[in-house]
């Protein structure tokens, strides 16, 4: 396309300068605070952070919910994507549009909808009390379950979109051929569908996992102070405690977790069978 590489570099240079000045440099300065102490450069910020039981609990809760949300999204996403790619072109477009539609709605509005569903006077509690399963409403908000449901609903479309894109590249005759050769649906999934859609799973898993780790609105609204996660703890450290060192440590932990998840998924996807 270009006569030489200089032309391509010249076109990419403005975007590179913009990203470096307005993103990489400020983030680098912020993250450098995580390695500073009164005595110079050290890892004392990390040892101090993980020495506190509350921080340990918040870290493992964030990791657990990220894995659960990504795993659940993968299971639901594969089923939904398989159904979508086997629809007629007209119906496929309509259903795919319904999958994309939630992404056009503000995450704040989508999260507040769960208050209507899970609140003490919400739909779920009205049904529980109406069916006689409980005499009083059950506390469903400000629990890990509420945060899990909110995050899953928030990021599930990203997994479905990634898997639909991957499944559309599977040859039409591959799955029927496997069934004719005697493979059951479980074998078809693990031996045919999964290997051919690994790239889509890596992309979707990375988007969902990192999104669940770094989302702030949903944990703040549905979890509050009772279900702290790293991102809500980061907000408290900056805006309440004015502790930028701890905030930088948390930010670095989130970045490392996100990159580690991507590398792990890529390693799994490229591993030899």
From TrEMBL:
Residues 59-265 form the ABC transmembrane type-1 domain. Pfam families: BPD_transp_1. The chain crosses the membrane at residues 12-31, 65-89, 95-119, 140-164, 201-224, 244-265. It is found in: Cell membrane. CDD domains: TM_PBP2. This is ABC transporter permease. It is a multi-pass membrane protein. PROSITE patterns: ABC_TM1 (PS50928). The keyword Metal-binding does not apply. InterPro entries: MetI-like, MetI-like_sf. Keywords: Cell membrane, Membrane, Transmembrane, Transmembrane helix, Transport. It comes from Roseibium algae.
């Amino acid at each position: 396309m270009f006569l030489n590489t200089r032309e391509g570099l010249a076109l990419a240079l403005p975007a590179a300068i913009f990203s470096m000045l307005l993103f990489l440099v400020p983030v680098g300065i912020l993250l450098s605070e995580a390695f500073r102490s009164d005595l110079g450069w050290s890892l004392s910020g990390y040892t101090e952070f993980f020495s506190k039981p509350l921080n340990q609990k918040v870290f493992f809760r964030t990791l657990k919910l990220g894995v659960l949300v990504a795993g659940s999204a993968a299971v639901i996403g594969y089923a939904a994507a398989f159904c979508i790619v086997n629809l007629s072109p007209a119906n496929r477009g309509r259903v795919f549009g319904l999958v994309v539609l939630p992404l056009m709605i503000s995450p704040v509005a989508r999260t507040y909808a769960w208050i209507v569903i899970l609140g003490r006077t919400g739909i779920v509690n009205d049904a529980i009390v109406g069916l006689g399963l409980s005499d009083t409403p059950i506390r469903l908000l400000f629990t890990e379950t509420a945060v899990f449901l909110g995050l899953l609903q928030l990021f599930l479309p990203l997994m479905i979109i990634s898997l639909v894109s991957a499944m559309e590249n599977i040859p039409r005759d591959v799955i029927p051929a496997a069934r004719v050769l005697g493979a059951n649906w479980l074998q078809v999934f693990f031996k045919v569908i999964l290997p051919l859609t690994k790239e889509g799973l890596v992309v979707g898993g990375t988007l969902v996992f990192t999104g669940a780790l770094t989302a702030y609105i949903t944990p703040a609204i549905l979890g509050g102070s009772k279900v702290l996660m790293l991102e809500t703890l980061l907000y408290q450290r900056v805006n309440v405690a004015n502790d930028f060192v701890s905030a930088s440590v948390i930010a670095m932990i989130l970045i490392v977790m996100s990159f580690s998840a991507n590398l792990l998924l890529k390693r799994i996807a490229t591993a030899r069978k």
